[in-house]
Design a protein that fits this description.
The chain is α/β, with parallel strands linked by helices and about 230 residues long. It has helices spanning about 40-50, 70-75, 95-105, 110-125, 140-150, 170-185, 195-200, 220, and strands spanning about 1-10, 15-25, 30-35, 55-60, 65, 80, 155-160, 185-190, 205-210, 210-215. The protein binds adenosine-5'-triphosphate and magnesium ion (MG).
Length: about 230
């Protein structure tokens, strides 16, 4: 479903990803871990087609992210929760913010109303529809970013540290949301610094200095992580 072949990426002279090969299968729930600056966010942006490979390639459902004519089709398949939810707020009310993506994809009114109701309930944002997103608490902003990215029912959800701004209770609630979304037959890549969270996924991809250091089933990979200082297991 996501295939990455010999992917290299650099920002100007700085080499960020160096020869990444990965295959993500339908229904996988992957944690992407690694120290600061190891290339986790960059990898997600490349999968979404926000950045293009310096060399190598990425296909999503067989569609090459470097083909400009396919980029909208690729984006329809992917929901993206950015590292900072504030960067994702685009409208002046919660309702408009959630509807923005559906409008872009040309959903009918009926479809929008139905999806909106479902996602408001699912994320616990009901009653906050008319609030200004900037006035929400950190946790509510985080939920809004998730609501806006799953409302179009994407097959793949890319999440960049979606729990980072939450208190422990908020983290538990939002993680449960993610688990429930995964159970509805979806594929998830979740960037996290929290090893307790990583331990609850099905697969771990560990990036070190822009390369895949370890990748495999969580039960096998997790015990290996203890020896890496940057991961604070
Ligand atoms: N827009 C940019 N321009 C130039 N360099 C960048 C840019 N964004 C990231 N980098 C550099 O690319 C490298 C990888 O960054 P990236 O954000 O992918 O790391 P990360 O693993 O997500 O780190 P963190 O855990 O801190 O979020 C870092 O050295 C970073 O400084
Ligand atoms: Mg990052």
């Amino acid at each position: 479903m996501i295939e990455i072949q010999d992917l290299w990426f650099n920002y100007q002279e700085q080499s960020v990803l160096e020869g990444i090969n990965l295959e993500i299968k339908h229904g996988e729930f992957c944690a992407v871990v690694g120290g600061n600056g190891s290339g986790k966010s960059t990898l997600l942006k490349l999968i979404e087609g926000l950045l293009l490979p310096s060399s190598g390639n990425i296909t999503v459902f067989g569609m090459d992210t470097q083909k400009e004519e396919l980029i909208l089709e690729i984006r329809k398949k992917i929901g993206y929760v950015f590292q900072n939810p504030e960067n994702q707020i685009i409208a002046s009310t919660v309702l408009e913010d959630i509807c923005f993506g559906m409008e872009n994809l040309g959903f009918s009114r009926e479809m929008m109303t139905e999806r909106l109701e479902r996602v408001l309930t699912f994320t616990g944002l009901k009653g906050l529809e008319n609030k200004n997103p900037l006035m929400l608490s950190g946790g509510q902003k985080q939920r809004l970013a998730i609501a806006s990215s799953i409302v179009t029912d994407p097959e793949i959800l890319l999440m960049d540290e979606p729990l980072s701004m939450l208190d422990p209770e908020g983290q538990r609630d939002v993680f449960k949301l993610i688990v429930d979304f995964h159970k509805s037959n979806k594929t998830i890549l979740l960037v996290t610094h929290d090893m307790a969270v990583a331990s609850k996924t099905n697969r771990i991809i560990f990036l070190k200095n822009g390369k895949v250091e370890l990748s495999g089933e969580t039960a096998q990979v997790f015990p290996e992580l203890g020896k890496y200082e940057e991961l604070s297991v």
